[in-house]
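User: Look at the shape:
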Amino acid sequence: MDLVVDANVIFAVLIKDSFSSHLLFSWEYHLFTPEYIFTEFEKHKEELLDKTERTTTEFFRLLEILKRRITLVPLEELTDYVAEAEKLTPDPKDMAYFALALKLNCAIWSNDKKLKEQDKIKVYPTHELVKL
């Protein structure tokens, strides 16, 4: 199953080993995210390191693995979908996730309840993916 993965899921995986970690590395899912996501990690790196249950070495090793596991899609590839994504998204900062989901015709994996405030794109929180 193709899924657009939201930053909150990736942040959660970096912070601690959880069921999200196991799902993220399941080969049942082909994961995609906008390419700027790892720039966001750089902005929040210190905060994530303060919260993580992992050692600094484990944290950065996992970050490198995630960069290889998740397909990064350049923002230029999303321009044809921006207008529709802007209409759909309940939160403008999540527009790129919606544009990518429209491009790939797939769902979004996010634990942000606000993203479900639309009915065009399916949004799966982690607990719903577990049931699939």
User: Anything to note?
Assistant: Residues 2-131 form a domain with the Rossmann fold fold (CATH 3.40.50.1010). Residues 37-51 form the longest helix (15 residues). Strands lie at 2-5, 30-34, 71-73, 107-109, 123-124.
